[in-house]
Each structure stands twice: as C-alpha cells, then as structure tokens.
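Model it.
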Amino acid sequence: MAENPVLCETTRGGVVESRHTGAVVAIDARGRVVFALGDVDRPVFPRSAVKAIQALPLIESGAADGFGFGAKELALACSSHSGEEGHADLAAAMLAKAGRDEATLECGAHWPLSIEAAGKLSFDHKRPTPLHNNCSGKHAGFVCTCVALEDDAAGYVGKDHAAMERVRRAMEEVTGAVHDPAAAGIDGCSIPTYAVPLTALAQGFARMATGEGFTAPRKRAAERLISACMAEPWLVAGTGRFDTEIMQALPRQVFAKTGAEGVYCAALPALGVGVALKIDDGAGRAAEVAVAAALAKVLRAGEKAEKLRELAVRPFVNWNGIRVGEARPGEAFS
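Modeled.
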C-alpha cells in the first residue's frame, strides 16, 4: 500500500515544523472521480461528519414536520455545536415539542466546546448537562423521531434499537457501502459508527447535494438538510468554528461538516461534487486546511476558489498575538 501524501504542513518562521499525511477524494453523484490523493479506499470511521445523513429519518418519518421544525432545528440536528446558549436552548426546545426533556438524551454531558460558554457555566456555579454535548441536536432528532413513530426512546443509542437501525439503513443507502457490524465501533456520543471507504462518503454527499438516485421524498429530505446547514452555519458549529466560517465565506454554496480524528465531508451542490478526507494522525487543524484546499481544487479558478485558498492557510499566533507560523496545504494539492 502506497504511503499517503502530505495534505497539510505547519511552519514556524520559514521552517516546516510538522507534516500531516492523509487521503482525500472528490467524486460526483454518479461515481466519477474528480481527483483523489492517497488511499481513498481504506475504510475510516466518519464520526460526526455524516450527521446530515443520519438526520434523514427525522424528516422521512414525518417527525420534523409534525413538530414544526424549520431550518434552525434541522441544522442543529446535523451539528457538532459548541454548546453555546443558543445551541443548548434550541436542543431543549426541540425535545419540549416532543414532550421530552434533557433526561431523555443518552449522549452524555461534557463541558461546552466554546471556552466562553464553559466559563459562563463555571462562573454561574453550574455543571454541563447533555444539552451542552456537541451532539445534543442530533440526539434530540433521534428522540423526536422515536416519539413520532411511537417507539420507546429508552436505549435509542443501542445498535439494535429501531432508531439506530433506521440510521444504519440510511447510511448504507446513501453511501452504497455495507455498514458491517464487524467494522463497527462506538462513537463519542454512544451511537454506533461504521468504518467505510472515503470514496463512499464522498459520493454519498454528492448524492445528498443533488438527490441523484434518490426517491422523490428522500431527495426533498436531503435538500432540506443540506440547505438548512448552509442557511444556518452557526447552528452547525458555532462562534469561531471552521464549519461555520467556511459556509459563511461562501453563503449557501458550500456544505462542510467535520468529524473527530481528522475527518471532513463536504459538498458543492452547484457542481454536484462531494468531498471526503481523513488525516492519518487525526489532527483537526490539518483537516480544516485540507478540506478548504480540496474544495478549491474542485472549483479550480475564480473568486470562490480564491476564497477557499485563503481559508486553507491558517495563521498561528502566540499568546502575545504575534504571528509565528501557519498551517497550509501540502504540495500534493499543487
């Protein structure tokens, strides 16, 4: 197996300090490879990068419409949010519409990813709840779907629960990849995660962005989810987060969603192209550089490509605000 190329390098002064290898692929909805770097057929855990696909049952079950969810709720259902007040409050409101509360969530609690939000909780002598978990929007969607379908929500994170079976089927149908229990693990929020090739993930998001090969109801559901994320990028991530930043830079033109351990999935709906990547060492900063560089490579030229190339160079500053280096695309993107 050939070694993966360097997708991101970091500098200090004029010297390269670190290099991050990985694999990335861009594919259209019919499976045509636009470009590929590295071993894109090796199965990887997509983690939170696939939340938009996992949210399909929320719409297809009738739960989203039944509870009156709009773009904000759908975006939060696809999010890895920062646990800011607006995120936690909206997750609570989603549950309330289904007659449930935070006690129903089985994602666990952690301090908000937002330093400011975590500091406010601590200052107020409060502890984080499951609503502050970055996955609470997704889990609220799972709970609401169970309520709408009259399933017992207890234990909904289990791989044999109807909720997770719906998610697994949606993932298989969208990506075309078998989600084998032998290649399964448990995600940070306790739901199952399945290792599948980057090629399947990239084509899956190309299909989510175009509806290619979907039934009419699924095409509408996918379009609503991708459009909601692009319309409400702050709810997908949060203040200062890269998912939010990249979607705000190209409003309603790019979808991007991070996953843990250096995974990113993205799509350019107007071109019908999906992108998926994995940084070998799991570095999130390298994944951010690589996804911006990959999307720019798909676009090739023009104002949009230039904006993405600018986002692909991430400056480093020290505690005195002095720029000391940067993270930038590796030569593989040249």
